[in-house]
Write a sequence for this structure.
């Protein structure tokens, strides 16, 4: 039995809802560890409130943030899975269904960039991108709604044959520019290489990586550890009111490039919205964070 | 430091001036909120035309909090509220702080030094609310006092709420010219050369 329009629509709605209301388990655990390690009393108070807020949103089935963000879905299609119906439409209809039914209702954040009018719908919304996974027998959907607070501070610059110190310095410049603004502690996604468009996607997808996985590229594993330490030495702290915890993780990915080498940096705020599911032909749906 | 001051609104200038950057406070009483740039522009228009606002904010509060309000049977209910980025309003806030002699402003991320100067002049503090704190912050709503400018989308409306134990909130900028946000940026800038040096040394150790 193929994966159907109806299944995809239901999953697209459910993932968005869950991203709005639940902080991923690894992120909650990282906040608890950060709280234990913090030396600033104000920062500990802010982290306590974050932990309590995550718990309260789950218990009461409420939104974590009033900014429901713009709907963003990443879809990976296994080449061994059969699909039935209009899958892009299913995602779009799933989002519309969520808007129509979610309690409490969400605010209008989808903005026409030409007129600044806001609503729940708009051109190219939801933003959906597709990849193929050779041999996989599932359709994978990840939803990561992006709000203004953190979304605004992503940046990309194109360098010519940059050495690693230039790349790392650029990441630090982006961190200092974002400062107290992006609802820290954040997850930082960094993309290196590819082209302008490909690099931005690398960064975003890196930011969605679960915590605790070691980067298979040794140069990047080392860079991630050093950058995390460096970012946390800046002192911006939780909500930018000072402390030792400005980032929970730095995740870097790369692609081969030309001599012009883009570096992209993006931030997920502390609620680290990400919710995913794999849909199989036998009707199984496995969710992940 | 971790003592939380429970404040009853409205505050006098003298009591606002006792607050220091880094204090933790909770609020009890009536607050006015909006998350809209068009709303701020409209307030400025009213201010310049000498027209009274539908909700008076003189010597009162104006917080950058968005809320979901809906009207049923002629009365408004507010389902939730949460802070938005205050620096978006940097250019408009000094004028509003001075004209209305605001006692408390706030949201998340702070305001710039022009606002900090205006706050020092009139006796006003900036409170930092937890972004992503929607569930907790909304629990503090006791009742809806007024919803004005409902021609605007929900989070742009000017909303007055009665709250109890709202917080804890961090005094991010006090009325003596101290801004935690500015301090954090300055500290980070000062530390950057050391931070970059450590990054370089760490990289060099790996490649040896």
């Amino acid at each position: 039995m193929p994966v159907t329009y109806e299944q995809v629509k239901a999953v697209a709605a459910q993932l968005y809802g869950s991203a709005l209301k639940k902080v991923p388990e690894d992120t909650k655990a990282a906040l608890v560890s950060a709280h234990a390690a913090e030396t600033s009393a104000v920062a500990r108070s802010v982290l306590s409130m974050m932990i309590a807020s995550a718990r309260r949103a789950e218990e009461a089935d409420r939104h974590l943030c009033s900014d429901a963000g713009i709907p963003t879905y990443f879809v990976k299609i296994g080449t061994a899975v059969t699909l039935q119906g209009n899958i892009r439409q299913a995602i779009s209809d799933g989002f519309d269904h969520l808007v129509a039914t979610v309690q409490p209702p969400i605010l209008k954040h989808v903005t026409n960039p030409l007129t600044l009018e806001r609503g729940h719908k708009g051109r190219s919304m939801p933003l959906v991108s597709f990849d193929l996974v050779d041999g996989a027998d599932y359709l994978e959907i990840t939803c990561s709604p992006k709000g203004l607070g953190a979304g605004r501070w992503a940046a990309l610059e194109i360098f010519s044959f940059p050495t690693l110190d230039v790349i790392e310095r650029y990441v630090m410049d982006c961190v200092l520019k974002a400062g107290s603004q992006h609802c820290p502690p954040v997850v930082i996604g960094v993309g290196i290489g590819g082209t302008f468009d490909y690099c931005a996607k690398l960064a975003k997808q890196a930011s969605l990586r679960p915590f605790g996985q070691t980067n298979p590229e040794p140069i990047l594993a080392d860079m991630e550890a050093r950058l995390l330490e460096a970012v946390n030495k800046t002192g911006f702290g939780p909500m930018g009111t000072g402390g030792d915890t400005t980032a929970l993780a730095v995740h870097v990915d790369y692609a081969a490039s030309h001599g012009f080498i883009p570096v992209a940096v993006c931030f997920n705020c502390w609620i680290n919205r990400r919710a995913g599911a794999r849909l199989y032909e036998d009707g199984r749906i496995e969710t992940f964070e | 430091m971790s003592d939380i001051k429970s404040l009853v609104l409205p505050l006098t200038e003298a009591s606002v001036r006792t607050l220091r950057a880094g204090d933790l406070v909770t609020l009890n009483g009536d607050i006015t909120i909006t998350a809209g740039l068009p709303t701020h522009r409209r307030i400025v228009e009213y201010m310049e035309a000498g027209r009274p606002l539908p909700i008076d904010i003189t010597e009162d509060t104006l917080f950058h909090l968005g809320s979901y309000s809906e009207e049923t049977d002629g009365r408004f209910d507010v389902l939730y509220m949460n802070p938005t980025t205050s620096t978006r309003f940097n250019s408009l806030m000094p004028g509003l702080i001075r004209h209305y002699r605001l006692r408390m402003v706030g949201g998340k991320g702070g305001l710039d030094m022009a606002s900090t100067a205006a706050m020092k002049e009139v006796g006003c503090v900036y409170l930092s609310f937890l972004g992503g704190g929607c569930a907790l912050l909304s629990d503090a709503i006791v009742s809806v006092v007024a919803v004005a400018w409902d021609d605007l989308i929900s989070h742009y409306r000017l909303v007055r709420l009665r709250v109890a134990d709202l917080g804890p909130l961090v005094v991010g900028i006090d009325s003596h010219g101290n801004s935690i946000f500015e301090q954090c940026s300055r500290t980070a800038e000062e530390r950057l050369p050391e931070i970059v040096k450590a990054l370089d040394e760490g990289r060099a150790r790996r490649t040896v």
Observations:
- The two ends of chain A are 26 Å apart (CA to CA).
- Chain A touches chain B through 56 residues (CB under 8 Å).
- Chain A is about 40% helix and 25% strand.
- The CA atoms of residues 113 and 122 of chain A lie 10 Å apart.
